[in-house]
Design brief:
With 309 residues, this protein is an all-alpha fold. The chain is built from nine helices and no strands.
C-alpha cells in the first residue's frame, strides 16, 4: 500500500494563498498612498508654498517661504481638515469598489498606505515650520504654543480621516451612513480648494452647489439606510447632529484662532461663541432639509421594493 500523496493543487494552495495575500497588501498600500496624494493635489497645484506665518523668526516675502506638503496656518484650518477628510473618503470609496476577498486585510493595507502618506506630509511640513519659527529660547514666546497647537490639530484631523476610512468602507449600513455624515462637510471644504486655486489662503466663494452638497449626501445616506431599528434611529440622530454642528464649530474655531485670541485677545473668544450660536441657528433649515430628504427617500425606496415583489 502506497502512502497517499497530496495532489499538485493541494501543494500549490499555500503558495497561491501567500501570493494572493501579497497582492492584497500591495494593492491596498498603493490605494492608501494614492488617496493621500490625491487629497494633497489641490494644495500642491498652488505651488505648495508655506503660508506666511505671524510668528516667523525673520521677515520673509510670501514667495520666499519654504515648500510644505500641508498648508500649515491658523487661517487655513478648514483646508487642513478638508484635506485629511478627502484622503479617508477617497481611500474608503476605493476600498468599497475594490472589494477584496479578505476585507480586514484590505482595510489594513489601505490604512498602512494612508499612514505613510500622512506621516510623510506631517513630518515634512512641521519640520519646515519649526525651522522657520525657531521656538524656544530666543524665539517668539508664543511660537512653541502655536507649533504644538497646530500639530495637535492636524493629528486630530488625521485621526478623523481614519475614522472616515473605517466607517465609510464598512459593510454595515449603519456605519457606512455615519461615515458619509462624518465626511460630508469636511470633504466639501476640500472641494472648495479646487475652486479657489487662483487665490490660496482666501475664503472660498459660497457656491450653492458646494453649500448644499453635504445636505444631499447626508439625506441620501439616511434614505438608503432607512429607519427600521433603534440603531438606525441612533445613526439618523448622530448624522443630523454632525451636519448641524460641523460647519458652525469650524467657523467659530477659525474665527478665534485666526484672531489670535490666545495672544492677549481673550475678548475674541466671546465673539467666537457668539459666531457659533448664530451659525447653529442658521443651520436649522439645512438639517431640516436633510431630514426631509432622508424621510422622503426612505419611503420611496420602501415603496419601490414592495412594487418589485
Amino acid at each position: 500500500m502506497t502512502e497517499h500523496q497530496p495532489a499538485e493543487s493541494d501543494r500549490a494552495t499555500p503558495a497561491a494563498h501567500t501570493r494572493h495575500q501579497s497582492w492584497t497588501g500591495a494593492i491596498g498600500i498603493v490605494i492608501g498612498l494614492a488617496a493621500g496624494l490625491l487629497s494633497l493635489t489641490p494644495w500642491l497645484l498652488t505651488g505648495g508654498t508655506l503660508p506666511l506665518q505671524n510668528l516667523w523668526a525673520t521677515e520673509t516675502l510670501p514667495d520666499d517661504m519654504p515648500f510644505s506638503l500641508l498648508p500649515i496656518s491658523q487661517y487655513m484650518l478648514r483646508d487642513l481638515v478638508g484635506i485629511m477628510a478627502a484622503s479617508g473618503t477617497t481611500a474608503a470609496l476605493a476600498l468599497r469598489w475594490w472589494r477584496p476577498a479578505r476585507r480586514r486585510a484590505g482595510l489594513g493595507s489601505v490604512a498602512v498606505g494612508l499612514v505613510a502618506a500622512h506621516l510623510t506630509a506631517v513630518v515634512q511640513s512641521f519640520l519646515e515650520l519649526r525651522a522657520g519659527l525657531a521656538p524656544g529660547p530666543g524665539g517668539h514666546p508664543y511660537a512653541t504654543y502655536y507649533f504644538y497647537g497646530m500639530l495637535a490639530g492636524v493629528l486630530l484631523a488625521v485621526a478623523m480621516s481614519f475614522a472616515i476610512l473605517a466607517s465609510l468602507s464598512s459593510r454595515s449600513p449603519n456605519r457606512a451612513a455615519f461615515g458619509a455624515a462624518l465626511t460630508a462637510t469636511p470633504t466639501t471644504w476640500w472641494l472648495t480648494i479646487w475652486f479657489n486655486l487662483g487665490t490660496p489662503g482666501m475664503l472660498a466663494p459660497e457656491l450653492p452647489v458646494l453649500q448644499w452638497l453635504p445636505v444631499a449626501v447626508v439625506g441620501a445616506a439616511l434614505a438608503a439606510l432607512g429607519l427600521r431599528t433603534l440603531r438606525n434611529g441612533a445613526v439618523w440622530l448622530a448624522s443630523l447632529t454632525i451636519l448641524w454642528i460641523t460647519g458652525p464649530v469650524a467657523w467659530a474655531v477659525q474665527f478665534v484662532v485666526g484672531s489670535r485670541a490666545i495672544v492677549g485677545r481673550p475678548d475674541q473668544v466671546e465673539a467666537g461663541l457668539s459666531t457659533l450660536s448664530s451659525s447653529l441657528a442658521m443651520q436649522t433649515p439645512v438639517v431640516a432639509t436633510a431630514l426631509a430628504i432622508g424621510i422622503a427617500g426612505s419611503v420611496l425606496y420602501r415603496r419601490l421594493r414592495r412594487s418589485e415583489r
